[in-house]
């Protein structure tokens, strides 16, 4: 065996010597295949929008610091711009109100002060959007802040405040004003005292005032983002919990359905084929619940009909059902398998244990700002199967999660019927 391996190795070496171009040709073919594979992958990413015509992936560009900075400048939500506009207009409005209460300000002085307030508002909007907001996005919102990040933020805010003051003074001087404020006087009752500011003292006071505005803006923005992140996290937690609860609900009738279909195959092959199709639809929905945890009432009722048709094979002499769904309720969304769970509970505990014929009725109607869903079934005697209440508890929790606590679920048991009533926001 060893000799055979040695001969094979010798043949390979001799083959390489006898054909010096074979190895290079083989490598060239491999490179061609790799290039073809890369080209196909590139074309797929181009067609799907994951790669730009320039050849650089947006993910790579966004991963760089400047790329993320530029992305933050270009993309802003509509509520953000609304709040920025309100902030700018509000600051100018407050300045106007203050100037109206100042009796010693003449018309020209008020105009110059109003111009300065408008320039402050414009500079605040530009600097916060171009410098402060991207820094907060990159250093605080998307990443964990460090001491260096906080120091960088304070330096950036001080620089923005200084730029704002310099720009406002420049606009005031170019507009022909007499110059910046030289004296501030405070009145307390009948006494009066004043402080004369000039040079670096005046500039420092203006920078401190502007810095307070930028610090307040940054604090409000971070608080807003923290609240939004908390809401998004809660939404994801609710979605995960809803998906987990939905996955816990398996069709208890599965084995009975297979037995019923097996028996029906010897009597009515066409009907057995239809039941297999209905059963496959039910299982397909359950297996795909990780993609969509909600369905329209129309689809929910269709699934419930499929379930009842399967159960009719086993309980046909004793089971009848009806659906009464208002047209304006069919598009309302429900957690997946809501109606099926309620109908299955009705058959399991209300119809199957009784020898007498029974019925199940599903109704939906609009009621003001809410809509009502009722599943009612006949109830002659208690079920021999002990109910744990897990199904209704599971259903109630899923309804609360999907409606932010606005849905209501109640059940009522009378002498000959059981009613499950759900009230949901429209």
In terms of topology, how is this protein built?
Blueprint: H1 2-18, H2 20-48, H3 58-63, H4 65-74, H5 78-101, H6 107-141, H7 147-174, E1 183-188, E2 191-196, H8 199-247, H9 254-264, H10 269-287, E3 294-296, H11 297-315, E4 319-325, E5 333-335, H12 338-351, E6 358-367, E7 370-378, H13 390-402, E8 408-413, E9 417-425
Parallel strand pairs: 4-6
Antiparallel strand pairs: 1-2, 3-5, 6-7, 7-9, 8-9
Helix pairs in contact: 1-2, 4-6, 5-6, 6-7, 6-8, 7-8, 8-13, 9-10, 9-11, 10-11, 11-12
Please explain how this structure is put together:
It is a single chain. This protein has 426 residues and is α+β, with helices and mostly antiparallel strands. The protein has two domains: 66-243, no CATH class; 251-425, Heat Shock Protein 90 (2-Layer Sandwich). The chain contains 13 helices and nine strands. Strand 6 and strand 7 (370-378) form a beta hairpin. The chain is elongated, with a radius of gyration of 37 Å. The protein starts with a helix and ends with a strand.
Gyration radius, rounded: 37 Å
Q: Mind summarizing the main beta sheet?
A: 5 strands, mixed
Order of helices and strands: HHHHHHHEEHHHEHEEHEEHEE
The beta-strand count equals 9
Q: Identify the strand order in the major beta sheet.
A: 4-6-7-9-8
Flag low-confidence runs. Answer: 1-62
Helical residues, percent = 55-70%
Mean of residue pLDDT? 74
Strand fraction equals 5-15%
H/I helix tally:
13
Identify the quaternary structure here. single chain
Structural class computed from helices and strand pairing: alpha+beta
Distance between the termini: 80 Å
Number of domain units: 2
Described by the principal axes of the CA atoms, the overall outline is: elongated
């Amino acid at each position: 065996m060893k000799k055979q391996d040695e001969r094979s190795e010798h043949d390979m070496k001799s083959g390489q010597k006898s054909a010096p171009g074979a190895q290079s040709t083989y490598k060239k073919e491999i490179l061609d295949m790799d290039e073809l594979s890369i080209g196909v992958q590139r074309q797929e990413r181009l067609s799907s929008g994951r790669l730009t015509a320039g050849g650089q992936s947006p993910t790579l560009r966004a991963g760089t610091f400047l790329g993320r900075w530029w992305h933050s400048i270009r993309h802003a939500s509509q509520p953000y711009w609304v709040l920025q506009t309100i902030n700018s207009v509000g600051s100018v409005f407050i300045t106007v109100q203050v100037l109206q209460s100042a009796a010693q300000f003449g018309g020209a002085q008020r105009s110059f002060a109003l111009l300065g307030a408008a320039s402050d508002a414009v500079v605040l909007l530009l600097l916060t959007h171009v410098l402060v907001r991207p820094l907060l996005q990159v250093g605080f919102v998307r990443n964990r802040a460090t001491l260096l990040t906080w120091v960088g933020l304070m330096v950036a805010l001080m620089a923005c405040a200084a730029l704002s003051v310099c720009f406002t003074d420049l606009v005031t001087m170019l507009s022909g004003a007499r110059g910046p404020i030289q004296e501030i006087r405070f009145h307390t009752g009948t006494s009066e005292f004043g402080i004369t500011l000039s040079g670096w003292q005046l500039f420092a006071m203006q920078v401190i005032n502007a810095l307070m505005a930028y610090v307040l803006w940054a604090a409000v923005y971070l608080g807003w983002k923290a609240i939004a992140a908390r809401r998004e996290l809660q939404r994801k937690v609710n979605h995960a919990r809803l998906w987990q609860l939905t996955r816990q609900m398996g069709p208890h009738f599965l084995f009975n359905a297979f037995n019923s279909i097996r028996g029906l195959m010897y009597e009515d092959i066409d009907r057995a084929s239809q039941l297999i199709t209905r059963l496959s639809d039910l299982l397909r929905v359950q297996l795909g619940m990780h993609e969509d945890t909600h369905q329209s009432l129309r689809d929910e009722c269709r699934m419930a009909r499929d379930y009842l048709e399967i159960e009719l094979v086993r309980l046909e002499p004793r089971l009848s059902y009806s659906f009464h769904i208002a047209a304006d309720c069919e598009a309302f969304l429900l957690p997946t398998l809501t109606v099926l769970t309620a109908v299955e509970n009705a058959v399991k505990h209300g119809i199957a244990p009784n020898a007498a014929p029974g019925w199940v009725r599903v109704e939906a109607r609009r009621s003001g700002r809410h809509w009502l869903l009722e599943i009612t079934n006949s109830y002659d005697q208690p079920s021999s199967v002990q109910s744990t209440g897990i199904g209704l508890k599971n259903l109630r929790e899923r309804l609360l999660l999907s409606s932010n606590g606005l849905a209501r679920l109640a059940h009522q048991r009378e002498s000959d019927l059981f009613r499950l009533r759900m009230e949901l926001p429209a």
